[in-house]
Design a protein that fits this description.
The complex is a heterodimer of chains A (345) and B (556). Chain A is an alpha/beta fold and 345 residues long. Chain A folds into two domains: 6-217, 3-Layer(aba) Sandwich (Rossmann fold), CATH 3.40.50.300; 222-344, no CATH class. Chain A contains 13 helices and 14 strands. In chain A, α3 (95-106) runs parallel beside α5 and α11 packs across α13. Classes of the chains: A alpha/beta (345), B mainly alpha (556).
Chain lengths: 345, 556
Amino acid sequence: MLNLAIRAEGLTKRYRAVAALDRLDLEIAPGEVIGYLGPNGAGKTTTIKLLLGLISPSGGRAEIFGADCQRRPAETHRRLAFVAGEANLWPTLTGAETLHLLGRVHGSVDVAYRDELIARFDLDPAKKVRAYSKGNRQKVILIAALMTRAELLLLDEPTSGLDPLMEEAFRLSIREARDRGQTVFLSSHILSEVEALCDRVGILRAGRLAEMGSLAQLRQLSARTVQATFDGPVPDLSRVPGVSSLAVDGRVARCQVRGPVAPLLTVLAGANVTELLSREPSLEELFLAQYGEHGDDQPLTAREVDQAQAARVADNTRADNTRADSTRADNTEIASTQVARHDAG
Amino acid sequence: MTQADLTAQSPARAAPRTGRPAATVITRLTARKAVRSGVVWGYVFGALIASSAVSYTRIYQTQAARDALAAAYGANNATSALFGPAPQLQTVPGFTAFKIGMTLILLGAVWGLLTSTRLLRGEEDDGRWELLLAGQTTRGRAAAEALAGLGAGACALWALTAILTVGVGLDSSVGLAAGPALYFALAMTATAVMFLAVGALTSQLASTRRQAASYAAGFLGGCYALRMIADAGVGLHGLIWASPLGWVEELRPFAGPQPLALLPIAAFTAVLAVTAVRLAGLRDAGAGILADRARSAPRLRLLSGPAGLAIRLARPVVFGWWTAIALSALLFGIIARSAGSTISGSSAQGVLAKLGASGTGTDAVLGVCFLALAVLIAFAAAGQVTAARSEESSQRLDHLLAGPVSRSRWLGGRLLVAAVVLLAGGAAAGLFAWLGAASQHSGAGLATLLTAGLNLVPPAITIGGIGVAAFGAWPRRTAAVVYTALTWSLLADLAGGFGGSGAASRWLLDTSVFHQMTSAPAAAPNWTANGIMVSVGVGCALLGGLAFNRRDLVGN
């Protein structure tokens, strides 16, 4: 059997009484692109540092391509490349010197690809790191990781500080990596990025893995949003099985539907519907459902989630094109969606 | 409506206003840090003065003993060049000024330049300065306010020094009036004030804290060298007025006070401070007046791995240390012969022997001078250890250890580089002392002086080893531990070195690595003691390395 790219069993890291990571189980096959979501302090960076062996676990173990992360770091590191969330580099070295150094340390570099990446990310390698902006320093460590063509890319919030053009270049590079069969472990809190790139998504919540699955699987667990506009009186939808969060505004009805949509369609077929919009929950909504916190550690109740989603739907439909709009909304980071939820509440 | 009504209704006025106007915020912020440091170092200054004064009265109780001391040092060009002239060694204050004065003058200068570069350029490096500039202020005004805060720190340094000096003066055997005590404290802290201003100026010229501190340190080195030549008895005493350190010497705290020398000190400080404020207003925030090259052609030769990187990063600093060591050794070599000739025979040799130097003339003087070089080399060792820690705390180390590089390989490479730095520093000390001595046709042989130079390395290895142990076990305390070990050794050696007797004094001396080192070339190197010091250093480093392998990497 092929070794898994990453396997973690009960991986735990405690700092005194606080569990930064609590009994994490992960199984990631070679070639997968995994999104690892969670807000600040959820344990994303802790996970990656444990996988790198930079810190040692309080319990459990982790393997990369079958080799133990703690006991055989040199072996695992030969097959991976790492992008830190904060690009702290040597201020007196230039970009080119930094890339040369990190390439020599790693051992293998695809020089042609490196030059292509430098052009793609529009980096001036003759500049000293001290003179780079935050985004440019981030580009240096991104290029350093990508140019190794390592089998596993461990990316810790790799796009912080990148502008939208560079974000696009980043997505292109990750797709290239996926097409070459590289495994990508992408820790992020930029949901649109994860939605655009990842096969599977894990959602971390206060040190515990709250959800792990493909986007389709996660969506099935959640409700879809339906909005209907009528050319006449709005029928009573509140008793239809699966429908919740019903809101009627003039001739427009909005609701959430869990499970099969057939009963709702039957009712709608009997009324004079002029326009019907149906939308899957965005990753943002899935995330909120997982992560709606009031400052304490309690998840939102189903009712609160529904309210938040209804508010979001109201927002989206105002902008007409739901798909385009959801992209816009998803581009905001978690912090702002939290605010949006509070606004809604 | 009355004026009061208008005021009350204006929304801007009605908004709650907290705190004091921005003008004093920066002053208070800077003052808080500067005063804290000034109080600590003022205490150290005062304690050194007090211990020196008290120990003099205990050791040299009879007039005969004091006359012998005066005869030995009073007209000695070597000690005069190193420590300044010693006109009144028969008196407690005169001896204290001679024994501890130059140490405090230099310590004060280092404190001044480090404090001001840290609180000015360091804050700018860390991005905090911009937050302050975003308030209701201008770049120039903010710099002036910060300078006022630094002034408060200098006041704290003087106040603590003065309190302790006046306090020890009350002791009947010391017998020092309050007036002269305050004047003495002023003289001892004058360099601190001047070098606060020097640091403020270099903070505007350079674009990083490290650069600013090294410009200021270079200036200090030049000042010291100038006054050294002036005091070396080679007929160039007029040069004393060319060096700010010389002005402090000319204050003559206990031997015919000359307060007029305060004039150049005050003028120098004022001119530098005003220039610094003007430059701060002219330059961009974050940039320096001297252009920093933002682009350069890649130099890849060394960047093939962690050890090469360590060399590349250490290079500018190490060249600085080597230059300082080589220049000092050269000067020592040059003055050694003329200084040595004045101490032949008599009681002088007995006094030098108390400092650990035996032998005759030139060798004895060099033996004492080399103590100062041992301290420089130990500081270089401490710097290497703290540099390793800063690689970790800044998380730059993560990029290397995420590659197939083991922690042992990284640390081992760095320590190897550090060992080469120390050995080369020792060899440079011997070589340049020989060059200096040879230029004066004095007989010290190259082999002897090279051996004496290498003899300076074992204490540095012990200090470095202690630092590595701390790095492994308490990473966040690395700098604190290594500099405490170093300062302790230095102070213990200074406090005990001028002739101590009694068990307490001997015990104190024994804890100093510098005391364990024999003062070659005056005495033959003690290879057993050196072996022990190297073993202790290497042992500590190994333990530290083991602990580092097993612990988590920790940031700041």
